[in-house]
Amino acid sequence: MMKVEVEVSGAQEERLRNLAEEQGISVAEAIRLCVNRTFSGPPGDRKALYDRAARVIGAFKDVEGATDLSIEHDRYLGES
Prior knowledge:
By secondary structure, the chain is mainly alpha-helical. The longest helix has 14 residues, at 10-23. The chain contains four helices and no strands.
């Protein structure tokens, strides 16, 4: 087993402590759980991920007919 020293923000520390308390485990075990969740699936294939994302570009039409979302995204977000 490898020992690692990691600095976390105050908010991260609080979330880790809360997780540990909720699960009835140590903070170290909570960190191991988080690491395991990150690596639980197969290694990411970035090309496959980008290819999958590219297939949905333009696949959905805006119900209100907007065609300038890529340009006016901040305005639309502000309106929502």
